[in-house]
Amino acid sequence: MSQDIKEKIIVTSASEKVLEIEDTTVSSQDNHSIITNSDYSPDLQWTEEEEKKVVRKIDIRLMSWVLLMTFVLNMDRTNIANALSDGLPTDLGFNLDYVNQATLIYGIVFTVFTLPTNAIVKKVGAHNWIPFIMFAWGIVTWAHIFVKDYNSYLVVRIFIAITEAGFIPACLTYLTGFYTTAELSSRLAWFWAIQSFASAFSGFLSFLIFRLAGVAGLEGWKWLFLIDGILTDVVAVISYLYLPKALSTPNRLSFGKKTWFTERELQIAVTRLIRDDQTKREQYRHITLDDVKQTVLDTRLWTHLLITFIGIMPNGPINTYLPTMIKQSGFSVYVANLLAAPTYLVNLVFSIFIAKAADRYGNTSLFALIGVTWNLTGFLLLEYLPVNASRWAMYSAAFVAASSPSWHGMQIAWMASNLAPIGKRTLALGAVIGAANICGVPGSQIYQAYDAPRFYHGNKILIGLSLTTMALFLLQRTRYILTNKHREKRWNSMTHEQQQDYELNTTHKGSERLDFRFRL
C-alpha cells in the first residue's frame, strides 16, 4: 500500500495555527488498520491547543497506567537484589557464584521468550497480552515463598524470566499506537525512569518488610516476594479491564460503549498519528516473512542492538550487588538498603530531564552519551579509590555508578524513528529488549565472589564496556549523517520526473528508500 500524505499549515490569526492534512490517495481497507473510515479525516483542521488537550488526555488516562504497570514490574525485578542483601543465598545454602549462574540462565530464557512477543501481540493484542503475563509473573513472584534450595530457586527464576519477558516489548509496541515519534522519547524516558523510582521504593519497602522475618515461619525476603506478587496480580486484573485495544476502542470498563475521546478528539488523535508516520495506518497488521527478512538484513538495526547489548551490560552487576556492596563497606543490611534508594531517585530525575532536552533540541544520540559518561565516571571511582578509603567514600563511588541517567529509552526512540516499515519496527522493538536482557548472561559473570568486595577485575571490564558504548553511539550517528548526505545528493541530482517515477515504482521499502532521512 502506498500513501502520499501532504501537510499544509494555515495561519488563521496571529496566535493560532491550524494544521490541515491532505490525503492524496485512497485510504487503507486493511482489517488490521489502526483506523476506520470515521476515525481518519483527510481534511481535518485543528489548533495546537486542541492537540495538546488530546495528548494530555492520553498521558493522564493511558500513560499513567502504563507507568503503574512498569512500576510493579520493576518492583518485582528489583526485589531479588534486596533479597540477596537479606541473606537469601545463605538461607538456601549457596553463594554468589550460584546467584550469577541463575542470573545467566534467567538472561538466556528471558531473551528467548522476548523475541516472539510482538508477533504474539499482533495476534492477540497488547491490551490482552500485558495483563495476562502480569498475572502469571505475579503468581510466580509470590511462589518464591515455597523455595527451599538452589534447584527450586532456579525453577522460579526461570518462570519469572518466561512470564516477564514479553512485558516491555509489548508496552513499546502498544505506546507507538498512541504517540507520535517526537512524543515517544520523553514517554519512554518516563517509562524507564519510573523503574528507577520502583527500585528506590523497593529499597524503602524492603527496609520495613524485612522486619517481618519469622512471622508465619517466613524469612524477611520471602515476605517481600509474597507482598510484591499479590500486588502484581491485583494490578493485572484491573489492567485487563482498563486498557483499550487502540485509540478508537472503548475499554472493558465502559462495556464497549464509549472511548476516552469525543468524536473530534478521536479524529485529531488518529489523524495526527498518520501525519507523523504513515505506516501507523497499519499499526495492527500481522507480521509477514518479508518483515522478518528486512529486519534481519538491516545492519543499522544490528548496530543499535550492539549498543544496547554492550551499553546495558554494566547495569546488571552494579544494580544486583549495590545493596550488598554498600553493606560490605561497613553498613548494616537495613541501612544498606536505605542508602541504595536515593541512587534510583537521582537516576529518575536526570533521566527525565535529559530526555526532555533531547525532545526539545534533537540530537538524541548526543544526549544519550551523558548517561554513558556518567556511568564511566562511577566505574573509574570504584576502580581507583584507595584501598583504605572510608565507607562513605566507597558509598559515594557506588552512588555515582548506580545513579547514572538511563539512556535506554532515548536509544529505543532513536532506533524506532529510523526504522520502517511498521513490521520491521515492531520486530526491532522486541529484539532490542532481548538484547537488553541477553547482556545479563555475560554481565552476570563480571562480578565474581573471589573479586569481592572491591571487584577490581570486574570494574575494569565495566570501564571498557562504557568506552565501547560511547564509540558505537558516535559511529552510528556518523553513519546516519553520511547516509543522509549521500541520499540528499542523489535525490537532488534527479529530475522532478525521475523523483516522481521513483516514488511510484521503487522496490525500496521504508528506511531503505532514497527519500527517507535518518534522525540524529
From TrEMBL:
Pfam families (UniProt xref): MFS_1 (PF07690)
Membrane topology according to the record: Multi-pass membrane protein
GO molecular function, one term: transmembrane transporter activity
Domain Major facilitator superfamily (MFS) profile residues, every copy: 62-486
Keyword Transmembrane helix: yes
Principal location class: membrane
Alphabetic keyword roster: Membrane, Transmembrane, Transmembrane helix, Transport
TM ranges: 62-84, 104-121, 128-147, 153-176, 188-211, 223-243, 301-322, 334-354, 366-386, 392-414, 426-450, 456-475
Superkingdom in the source lineage: Eukaryota
GO cellular component: membrane
Localization: Membrane
Family annotation (PROSITE patterns): MFS (PS50850)
InterPro entries linked: MFS, MFS_dom, MFS_trans_sf
PANTHER family (alphabetical): MAJOR FACILITATOR SUPERFAMILY (MFS) PROFILE DOMAIN-CONTAINING PROTEIN, PERMEASE-RELATED
Protein name stated in the entry: Major facilitator superfamily (MFS) profile domain-containing protein
UniProt organism field: Umbelopsis ramanniana AG
